[in-house]
Design goal:
Layout: E1 11-14, E2 18-26, E3 29-35, H1 48-53, H2 66-80
Antiparallel strand pairs: 1-2, 2-3
């Protein structure tokens, strides 16, 4: 994490197209101006968890490939098999 000290009116450039400007400092409160393209999501930290809860669930056509589900169910079957043959059983 990079920590910078800035005065009112000073700017911080992030990448090629995001600019943060310190607008006001009053006590323990700082007012920032953010200039970024519309496609850049800007979210206050306390809202991040709430925003994740409301994200769209994956679309049905984006589900995992069918073979992946078969692998998981086959692994469960193999896991249930005994590690060594039980006495009296025929091993083929």
């Amino acid at each position: 994490m990079l920590v910078l000290s800035r005065k009112v009116g000073e700017r911080i450039h992030v990448g090629d197209n995001i600019v943060l400007e310190i607008r006001r400092i009053a006590g323990n409160r700082v007012t920032l101006a953010l200039d970024a393209p519309r496609d850049v999501r800007i979210l206050r930290g306390e809202l991040e968890l709430a925003a994740k809860e409301f994200q769209d669930p994956p679309h049905p056509e984006e589900k995992a490939p069918a073979f992946q589900n078969d692998v998981v169910s086959n692994m469960a079957i193999l896991h249930a098999l005994p590690a060594e043959p039980v006495a009296g059983q025929c091993v083929s």
